[in-house]
Amino acid sequence: MLNYDLVVVGGGPAGMAAALKARECGVEKIIVLERAETLGGILEQCIHTGFGLHYFGEELSGPEYAAKFIDMLKDTDIEVKVNTMVLSVSDDKVVTAVNTVDGLIQIKATAVILAMGCRERPRGALQIAGTRASGIMTAGTAQKYVNIDGYMPGKKVVILGSGDIGLIMARRMTLEGAEVKVVCELMPFSGGLTRNIVQCLDDFGIPLKLSTTVIETHGKERLEGVTIAKVDDRLQPIPGSEEYIECDTLMLSVGLIPENELTKQAGIALDNITNGAVVNEMRETDHEGIFACGNVLQVHDLVDYVTLESQIAGEGAARYILGKDTEEKVYINTTPENGVRYIVPQKVNIKSKEDIKLYFRVGAIYMNKKLTVEVDGKVISSKKKVKLAPGEMENVVIPADILATLNENSTIKVRVEE
Amino acid sequence: MYDIAIVGAGVTGAMTARELSRYNLRIALLEKCNDVAMGATKANSGIVHAGFDAAEGSLMAKMNVEGCALMPETCEKLHVPYVNNGSLVVAFSDDEMKHLEVLLERGKANGVPEISILSKEELLEKEPNLSPDSFGALYAPTAGIVCPYELTIAAAECAVLNGVEFIRNCEVQAVETTDECFVLDTTQGKIEAKYVINAAGVFSDDLARMAGDDTISITARKGEYFLLDRAVGNTVSHTIFQCPSKMGKGILVSPTVDGNLLVGPTAEDIDDKTNVATSNSGLNDVRKYAVKSVPSVNTRNAITSFTGLRAHAAAHEFLIGVSEKNSRLINAAGIESPGLSSAPAIAKYIGEIVKSVFGEIEVKADYDDTREAPVRFRHMTDEERAELIKKNSAYGRIICRCETITEGEIIDAIKAPAGARDVDGVKRRTRAGMGRCQGGFCGSKVVEILARELGCEINEITKFGGNSNILFEKTK
User: Fold this and answer.
1) What's the pTM value of the predicted model, to 2 decimals?
2) Looking at this predicted complex, what is its ipTM?
3) Quick check: A77 pLDDT over 80?
4) Could you confirm whether B49 is annotated as catalytic?
5) Residue B171: left (phi > 0), alpha (psi -120 to 50), or beta?
6) How high does pLDDT run on average in chain B?
7) Which CATH architecture has domain A1-120+256-326?
8) Which residues of B touch A104 (CB under 8 A)?
9) Which residues have CB under 8 Å from B173's CB, separation 6+?
């Protein structure tokens, strides 16, 4: 059994930022376990730009953003094991992993940071009728085939779902010479960033059909076409609105799910809206010394926010490991209300000496509405927003001086209002 | 020249090949697809029926009861998962309770052991998630569940290890009958065989006709299913049937050997014997009728849906035996449910037929009717895993995260006798890609491993043979 102060599960942007922050805060023995061949996570296949505008103040590609952190890691004595899959994290923080070099590894950790990222929602769960032809894949899989393997996964493409990866792939496939016929979105609004709709669809004349879904796939071997249809308010296909579209590829970009199998296995409480762990303001789960950050905690819109969140987790883990975490703790829950779907962190320590930022998403498109924060029945802030959309993460700050006035029965509520 | 060509590598063909491989005969197992188990075998309920459905005195009844009894030992020898979970036919009215009596009597006449009728209270005690509207049930403790394609893959491996030649992508397009043999004109060239065993599933009438036997007529009867996540896999522990109708045994709800919950099938006769598309109406029917017996079944938990085709003969009877029109053609046609349950018995029955037509045949001294257990990393203890990786480091590389499948297992599946040649073949043998992400992460890695092991480019790799390639040409 090996011993480490901190084991970070996942070497994507979240895991790297968390490990670096913990190191900066004085944690000595740190190891990052990454299942892929390289560090960087999904950024490695995101060769488009748009990363880093907030955090670095410059526009980087995914691999460039990752490279900055990979370089910073190299300058430290943080250990990294790639091609290493974590199989379990036990209650007493023993991490079991395998790789081809070391075989089965067991590590006793003082603290663990979970940074496994997320995965794409697959087709099966969508229950589209039709054949089992080849050519039906998630947008992320298609992205890997094009950007990493260098092969075309399709020539005539229909994209279902307007999540960011789908939008990015609409542009990418077009640039590679494929014909992207349409992007269909079940909801009356897109789940992707506005800038991606403009830069990836509008600029290339690719139609986005809202309130539309794919109801059937055709073709016995390779996909030959799909039937799309408009949906009603209850998201049910409207008879008579069916349209056949010839295509050899159906890409799915219908949402991301945090990959919390290890978290569940460890018995850590999950939030059934975010599908990530329930955490406090330091991103510590209900298991002391086990933290979570990045897309495994909540699906983020921008990697910059993943970095910021992971630094919080890294600092939290450092305080825990170095025993600086002894101040009194009194937790109260944060409550999402009207229009706000969830809040991360789900609970905050009112004895915290620092401002606490609450991150959340809204459930629908709102124009010219106010984002209101209410503490103990008093509105502490109410900001007018021109547009709120489910595709974009929002945040509000609870200042430390307000926290200082709270007790264990206090309430913190965030809502959308007129 | 082969002594015997078995046409069709579904469960019937593969189990028959294994049975016949004990004899000193030259046998070919021909399959039109890129893998075994690609027809009715791939997509059915995976139920080992007890044997009370088929008419008394029928071959179907005899094969079913015998097959059900043989299944546990067969699965043990082949290291295929089998669970003896028992089945319940649930009645929802007094009329249906009366029908259970009919099934009970028929079952007894067929020789089904230990069947009985349960009261509502007894039923709900066994299965608390069943509908409170149920009246009672017929309980058959000998029924079980098995993975149909794993059984077929294992049987084919066993057959090949005993000397059977497996020829894939080999569709019989014409049959010529000479004085000594059949000449099969196939997509792999001409193949000569003294005898042909027709195990061609929904196409068995077409094959018989090519060989001069026009007495068989097969209808493809489509059945649609949902497979639900393991999170709801323990909703019921027995296989739950509704009272049967003319079109079959109704919508069942059953656990699978892999811990998922299976819901289906519909029953619809169709003209196109290659149409395995699911339909909105069919899937809606499954949703609608499943909740009648198990109200909590929610297809929002579905991880996939699929369609299978039953090879339905008008007489609803197994048509097994030497053809009346051609004495060197042995038919195994009309093998619909309970065909899987019957497979071990059908194989033996055909074995007897083969013995009678060949006269004395020598049994091979080294015949082995077992198959070694494949490596299943996910079921091992950490100590076993450590040992395994020491022996072969490929078992230290996890390819499928959802199901914890290693590169070593995938290589084993490709290198196995009658091994995997495509992505779906790897999936059926290893479960890689069968989990929650449905191959989102591991699909491209499986393609890479297949290309490397088979020595081809990754854009030559298919999902399931034919033109089901995954990738086109290289990017610009």
Assistant:
1) 0.94
2) 0.92
3) yes
4) yes
5) beta
6) 95
7) 3-Layer(bba) Sandwich (3.50)
8) 382, 385-386, 389, 396
9) B185, B186, B187
